[in-house]
Here is the input.
Amino acid sequence: MNPKVSILIPVFKVSAFIEKCAESLFNQTFEDIEYIFVNDATPDDSIEKLEKIINQFPSRKKQIKIIHHQINKGIAAVRNTALDAATGVFISFVDSDDYIDAEMIEQLYMKAIEENADIVVSNIRIEFENRSTIFNDKIYENSNDNFLNMILHKNSSSSLCNKLVNSDLYKSPDCRVPENLNYCEDWFVMTRIYYYAKKIVKTDQAFYHYIQHNSNSITKDINRMHFKNVLIFWNLLDDFLRKNNQFENYVDYMALPKAQSKARLMVDTHSKTLRKEFADMFLNEEKQCFNVLRFGEKCMLLFVRLRLFGMSQLLHNLLIYNNKLTRQKIE
Here is the structure.
Protein backbone atom coordinates (compact mmCIF):
# COMPACT_ATOMS: atom_id res chain seq x y z
CA MET A 1 0.00 0.00 0.00
CA ASN A 2 1.38 3.37 -0.97
CA PRO A 3 2.36 5.83 1.78
CA LYS A 4 0.06 8.76 2.31
CA VAL A 5 2.86 11.34 1.90
CA SER A 6 6.28 11.43 0.25
CA ILE A 7 8.71 14.14 1.38
CA LEU A 8 11.42 14.84 -1.20
CA ILE A 9 14.70 16.44 -0.12
CA PRO A 10 17.64 17.50 -2.35
CA VAL A 11 21.08 17.34 -0.72
CA PHE A 12 24.00 19.46 -1.92
CA LYS A 13 26.47 21.45 0.19
CA VAL A 14 24.21 21.70 3.24
CA SER A 15 26.55 20.43 5.96
CA ALA A 16 25.65 23.33 8.26
CA PHE A 17 21.90 22.74 7.95
CA ILE A 18 21.10 19.10 7.18
CA GLU A 19 20.94 17.89 10.78
CA LYS A 20 18.31 20.43 11.85
CA CYS A 21 16.34 19.78 8.67
CA ALA A 22 16.40 15.99 9.08
CA GLU A 23 15.40 16.17 12.75
CA SER A 24 12.40 18.30 11.84
CA LEU A 25 11.38 15.75 9.19
CA PHE A 26 11.73 12.66 11.38
CA ASN A 27 9.96 14.36 14.31
CA GLN A 28 6.75 14.77 12.31
CA THR A 29 3.60 13.86 14.22
CA PHE A 30 2.34 12.18 11.04
CA GLU A 31 3.54 8.57 10.75
CA ASP A 32 2.78 7.40 7.20
CA ILE A 33 5.61 9.24 5.43
CA GLU A 34 8.12 8.16 2.81
CA TYR A 35 11.37 10.18 2.88
CA ILE A 36 13.43 10.44 -0.32
CA PHE A 37 16.78 12.21 -0.10
CA VAL A 38 18.64 12.82 -3.38
CA ASN A 39 22.38 13.32 -2.99
CA ASP A 40 23.45 15.45 -5.96
CA ALA A 41 27.11 14.40 -5.60
CA THR A 42 27.63 16.74 -2.66
CA PRO A 43 31.36 17.23 -1.99
CA ASP A 44 31.00 17.85 1.75
CA ASP A 45 29.91 15.66 4.71
CA SER A 46 26.16 16.34 4.33
CA ILE A 47 25.35 12.64 3.78
CA GLU A 48 27.44 11.51 6.75
CA LYS A 49 25.61 13.99 8.98
CA LEU A 50 22.26 12.86 7.55
CA GLU A 51 23.06 9.21 8.29
CA LYS A 52 24.01 10.13 11.84
CA ILE A 53 20.57 11.70 12.38
CA ILE A 54 18.83 8.73 10.72
CA ASN A 55 20.46 6.42 13.29
CA GLN A 56 18.81 8.47 16.04
CA PHE A 57 15.36 7.63 14.62
CA PRO A 58 15.31 3.84 14.25
CA SER A 59 11.52 3.76 13.84
CA ARG A 60 11.85 5.88 10.68
CA LYS A 61 14.67 3.92 9.01
CA LYS A 62 12.45 1.74 6.83
CA GLN A 63 10.69 4.85 5.53
CA ILE A 64 13.90 6.49 4.26
CA LYS A 65 15.57 6.23 0.86
CA ILE A 66 18.83 7.94 -0.13
CA ILE A 67 19.45 8.14 -3.88
CA HIS A 68 22.93 9.10 -5.07
CA HIS A 69 23.79 10.97 -8.25
CA GLN A 70 27.28 10.00 -9.37
CA ILE A 71 27.84 13.51 -10.78
CA ASN A 72 26.31 16.85 -9.91
CA LYS A 73 23.26 17.35 -12.17
CA GLY A 74 21.57 20.43 -10.72
CA ILE A 75 18.31 21.04 -8.91
CA ALA A 76 16.01 20.28 -11.87
CA ALA A 77 17.45 16.77 -12.28
CA VAL A 78 17.30 16.25 -8.52
CA ARG A 79 13.61 17.14 -8.43
CA ASN A 80 12.91 14.73 -11.29
CA THR A 81 14.90 11.89 -9.68
CA ALA A 82 12.97 12.34 -6.44
CA LEU A 83 9.60 12.45 -8.21
CA ASP A 84 10.40 9.29 -10.17
CA ALA A 85 11.06 7.46 -6.89
CA ALA A 86 8.09 8.87 -4.96
CA THR A 87 5.13 6.58 -4.30
CA GLY A 88 3.08 8.74 -1.92
CA VAL A 89 -0.49 9.86 -2.56
CA PHE A 90 0.63 13.41 -1.74
CA ILE A 91 4.05 14.98 -2.19
CA SER A 92 5.89 17.70 -0.32
CA PHE A 93 9.35 19.10 -1.04
CA VAL A 94 11.65 20.36 1.70
CA ASP A 95 14.96 22.06 0.95
CA SER A 96 17.71 20.63 3.13
CA ASP A 97 18.87 24.01 4.41
CA ASP A 98 15.36 24.71 5.77
CA TYR A 99 13.18 22.99 8.37
CA ILE A 100 9.49 22.45 9.16
CA ASP A 101 7.30 22.39 12.26
CA ALA A 102 6.51 18.98 13.73
CA GLU A 103 2.81 19.12 12.87
CA MET A 104 3.14 20.46 9.32
CA ILE A 105 2.53 17.26 7.35
CA GLU A 106 -0.29 16.08 9.60
CA GLN A 107 -2.10 19.41 9.43
CA LEU A 108 -1.74 19.79 5.66
CA TYR A 109 -2.73 16.18 4.97
CA MET A 110 -5.84 16.37 7.19
CA LYS A 111 -6.91 19.59 5.47
CA ALA A 112 -6.39 18.01 2.04
CA ILE A 113 -8.63 15.08 2.98
CA GLU A 114 -11.28 17.16 4.74
CA GLU A 115 -11.61 19.63 1.86
CA ASN A 116 -10.90 17.22 -1.01
CA ALA A 117 -8.13 19.55 -2.17
CA ASP A 118 -5.40 18.95 -4.73
CA ILE A 119 -3.04 21.40 -3.02
CA VAL A 120 -2.75 22.66 0.55
CA VAL A 121 -0.55 25.71 1.14
CA SER A 122 1.23 26.83 4.30
CA ASN A 123 2.50 30.31 5.01
CA ILE A 124 6.29 30.67 5.18
CA ARG A 125 8.35 31.93 8.09
CA ILE A 126 11.44 33.57 6.59
CA GLU A 127 14.34 33.22 9.01
CA PHE A 128 17.11 35.82 8.94
CA GLU A 129 20.15 35.83 11.24
CA ASN A 130 18.49 37.87 14.00
CA ARG A 131 14.82 38.06 13.08
CA SER A 132 12.03 36.36 11.20
CA THR A 133 9.05 37.50 9.17
CA ILE A 134 6.03 35.70 7.75
CA PHE A 135 5.18 35.56 4.06
CA ASN A 136 1.42 35.22 3.68
CA ASP A 137 0.97 32.99 0.62
CA LYS A 138 -2.19 34.26 -1.06
CA ILE A 139 -4.82 31.78 -2.28
CA TYR A 140 -8.08 32.71 -4.02
CA GLU A 141 -11.31 30.77 -4.27
CA ASN A 142 -11.30 30.99 -8.06
CA SER A 143 -8.82 28.67 -9.78
CA ASN A 144 -8.22 31.13 -12.64
CA ASP A 145 -7.25 33.81 -10.11
CA ASN A 146 -4.77 31.41 -8.50
CA PHE A 147 -3.18 30.62 -11.85
CA LEU A 148 -2.94 34.30 -12.81
CA ASN A 149 -1.49 35.19 -9.42
CA MET A 150 1.17 32.52 -9.88
CA ILE A 151 2.11 33.95 -13.27
CA LEU A 152 2.34 37.45 -11.77
CA HIS A 153 4.54 36.03 -9.02
CA LYS A 154 3.45 38.75 -6.62
CA ASN A 155 1.29 37.49 -3.77
CA SER A 156 1.75 33.75 -4.28
CA SER A 157 4.98 31.89 -3.60
CA SER A 158 6.25 29.66 -6.40
CA SER A 159 8.10 27.52 -3.85
CA LEU A 160 7.36 23.79 -3.93
CA CYS A 161 8.31 23.55 -0.29
CA ASN A 162 5.38 25.12 1.55
CA LYS A 163 2.80 22.95 -0.21
CA LEU A 164 1.32 19.46 -0.05
CA VAL A 165 0.37 18.44 -3.58
CA ASN A 166 -1.56 15.49 -5.00
CA SER A 167 1.09 13.33 -6.66
CA ASP A 168 -0.97 12.99 -9.85
CA LEU A 169 -0.26 16.66 -10.58
CA TYR A 170 3.49 16.24 -10.17
CA LYS A 171 3.48 13.11 -12.32
CA SER A 172 1.91 14.93 -15.28
CA PRO A 173 4.41 15.23 -18.18
CA ASP A 174 3.63 18.95 -18.46
CA CYS A 175 4.86 19.46 -14.89
CA ARG A 176 8.23 17.80 -15.36
CA VAL A 177 11.11 20.29 -15.18
CA PRO A 178 13.47 20.41 -18.19
CA GLU A 179 16.87 19.38 -16.83
CA ASN A 180 18.56 22.50 -18.24
CA LEU A 181 16.28 24.73 -16.14
CA ASN A 182 18.02 25.25 -12.78
CA TYR A 183 16.67 28.76 -12.18
CA CYS A 184 12.91 29.48 -12.12
CA GLU A 185 12.42 25.70 -11.97
CA ASP A 186 9.93 25.88 -9.07
CA TRP A 187 8.02 28.66 -10.81
CA PHE A 188 7.89 26.51 -13.96
CA VAL A 189 6.31 23.63 -12.01
CA MET A 190 3.89 25.72 -9.97
CA THR A 191 2.40 27.59 -12.94
CA ARG A 192 1.42 24.25 -14.46
CA ILE A 193 0.26 22.65 -11.24
CA TYR A 194 -1.88 25.70 -10.43
CA TYR A 195 -3.33 25.54 -13.94
CA TYR A 196 -4.41 21.90 -13.55
CA ALA A 197 -5.42 21.91 -9.87
CA LYS A 198 -9.16 21.76 -9.29
CA LYS A 199 -9.02 22.97 -5.68
CA ILE A 200 -6.33 24.82 -3.73
CA VAL A 201 -6.73 25.62 -0.04
CA LYS A 202 -4.42 26.93 2.66
CA THR A 203 -3.78 26.99 6.37
CA ASP A 204 -3.06 30.27 8.14
CA GLN A 205 -0.13 28.80 10.07
CA ALA A 206 3.48 29.32 8.92
CA PHE A 207 4.77 25.75 9.21
CA TYR A 208 7.69 26.09 6.79
CA HIS A 209 10.92 27.82 7.91
CA TYR A 210 12.90 29.27 5.02
CA ILE A 211 16.51 30.05 5.96
CA GLN A 212 17.95 33.18 4.35
CA HIS A 213 21.63 32.89 5.21
CA ASN A 214 22.84 29.99 3.06
CA SER A 215 25.88 31.29 1.15
CA ASN A 216 25.62 28.36 -1.30
CA SER A 217 22.36 29.60 -2.78
CA ILE A 218 22.32 29.51 -6.58
CA THR A 219 20.91 33.05 -6.67
CA LYS A 220 23.92 34.64 -4.94
CA ASP A 221 25.89 35.09 -8.18
CA ILE A 222 23.80 36.01 -11.22
CA ASN A 223 25.46 34.67 -14.38
CA ARG A 224 24.62 33.79 -18.00
CA MET A 225 22.71 30.68 -16.90
CA HIS A 226 20.19 32.83 -15.02
CA PHE A 227 19.49 35.04 -18.05
CA LYS A 228 19.15 32.03 -20.35
CA ASN A 229 16.92 30.19 -17.88
CA VAL A 230 14.58 33.18 -17.59
CA LEU A 231 14.25 33.21 -21.38
CA ILE A 232 13.61 29.45 -21.40
CA PHE A 233 11.03 29.80 -18.63
CA TRP A 234 8.97 32.44 -20.43
CA ASN A 235 9.24 30.76 -23.84
CA LEU A 236 8.00 27.49 -22.34
CA LEU A 237 5.15 29.22 -20.52
CA ASP A 238 4.12 30.97 -23.76
CA ASP A 239 4.15 27.57 -25.50
CA PHE A 240 2.15 25.97 -22.68
CA LEU A 241 -0.54 28.63 -22.89
CA ARG A 242 -0.71 28.37 -26.67
CA LYS A 243 -1.08 24.59 -26.44
CA ASN A 244 -4.03 25.08 -24.09
CA ASN A 245 -5.53 27.91 -26.18
CA GLN A 246 -5.01 30.38 -23.35
CA PHE A 247 -2.23 32.61 -24.67
CA GLU A 248 -4.45 35.51 -25.74
CA ASN A 249 -6.14 35.47 -22.34
CA TYR A 250 -2.87 35.99 -20.47
CA VAL A 251 -0.43 37.68 -22.84
CA ASP A 252 -1.12 41.19 -21.50
CA TYR A 253 -0.76 40.02 -17.90
CA MET A 254 2.64 38.48 -18.63
CA ALA A 255 4.24 41.73 -19.78
CA LEU A 256 4.89 43.00 -16.25
CA PRO A 257 6.48 39.86 -14.77
CA LYS A 258 8.64 39.52 -17.89
CA ALA A 259 9.86 43.10 -17.47
CA GLN A 260 10.41 42.53 -13.74
CA SER A 261 12.40 39.36 -14.47
CA LYS A 262 14.71 41.35 -16.73
CA ALA A 263 15.02 44.23 -14.27
CA ARG A 264 15.97 41.96 -11.36
CA LEU A 265 18.68 40.25 -13.38
CA MET A 266 20.08 43.54 -14.66
CA VAL A 267 20.20 44.98 -11.14
CA ASP A 268 21.66 41.87 -9.49
CA THR A 269 24.33 40.80 -11.96
CA HIS A 270 27.88 42.07 -11.46
CA SER A 271 28.59 41.74 -15.18
CA LYS A 272 28.46 44.63 -17.67
CA THR A 273 29.01 42.02 -20.38
CA LEU A 274 25.76 40.27 -19.52
CA ARG A 275 23.86 43.55 -19.46
CA LYS A 276 25.17 44.26 -22.93
CA GLU A 277 24.42 40.75 -24.23
CA PHE A 278 20.82 40.70 -22.97
CA ALA A 279 20.01 44.41 -23.36
CA ASP A 280 17.17 43.71 -25.82
CA MET A 281 15.60 40.92 -23.76
CA PHE A 282 11.84 41.59 -23.30
CA LEU A 283 12.33 45.10 -24.67
CA ASN A 284 8.70 45.54 -25.76
CA GLU A 285 7.42 44.38 -22.36
CA GLU A 286 9.92 46.68 -20.65
CA LYS A 287 8.63 49.71 -22.56
CA GLN A 288 5.01 48.70 -21.99
CA CYS A 289 5.42 48.42 -18.19
CA PHE A 290 8.22 50.92 -17.58
CA ASN A 291 6.13 53.35 -15.51
CA VAL A 292 5.08 50.73 -12.92
CA LEU A 293 8.59 49.43 -12.21
CA ARG A 294 10.58 50.51 -9.15
CA PHE A 295 12.72 53.61 -9.44
CA GLY A 296 16.02 51.72 -9.27
CA GLU A 297 14.80 49.22 -11.85
CA LYS A 298 13.71 52.04 -14.18
CA CYS A 299 17.12 53.68 -13.94
CA MET A 300 18.93 50.41 -14.59
CA LEU A 301 16.81 49.51 -17.61
CA LEU A 302 17.14 53.03 -19.02
CA PHE A 303 20.94 52.93 -18.72
CA VAL A 304 21.01 49.52 -20.40
CA ARG A 305 18.65 50.63 -23.18
CA LEU A 306 20.86 53.66 -23.87
CA ARG A 307 23.97 51.43 -23.74
CA LEU A 308 25.37 53.39 -20.78
CA PHE A 309 26.94 50.28 -19.29
CA GLY A 310 29.43 52.17 -17.15
CA MET A 311 26.56 54.04 -15.50
CA SER A 312 24.68 50.76 -15.08
CA GLN A 313 27.64 49.35 -13.15
CA LEU A 314 27.78 52.38 -10.87
CA LEU A 315 24.04 52.05 -10.23
CA HIS A 316 24.43 48.34 -9.49
CA ASN A 317 27.11 49.09 -6.89
CA LEU A 318 24.97 51.82 -5.33
CA LEU A 319 21.86 49.62 -5.10
CA ILE A 320 23.81 46.69 -3.63
CA TYR A 321 25.42 49.00 -1.05
CA ASN A 322 22.03 50.53 -0.19
CA ASN A 323 20.49 47.06 0.24
CA LYS A 324 23.29 46.09 2.64
CA LEU A 325 22.76 49.23 4.70
CA THR A 326 18.99 48.64 4.83
CA ARG A 327 19.51 45.02 5.91
CA GLN A 328 21.92 46.05 8.67
CA LYS A 329 19.43 48.60 10.03
CA ILE A 330 16.63 46.02 10.07
CA GLU A 331 18.70 43.28 11.69
In short: The radius of gyration is 20 Å.
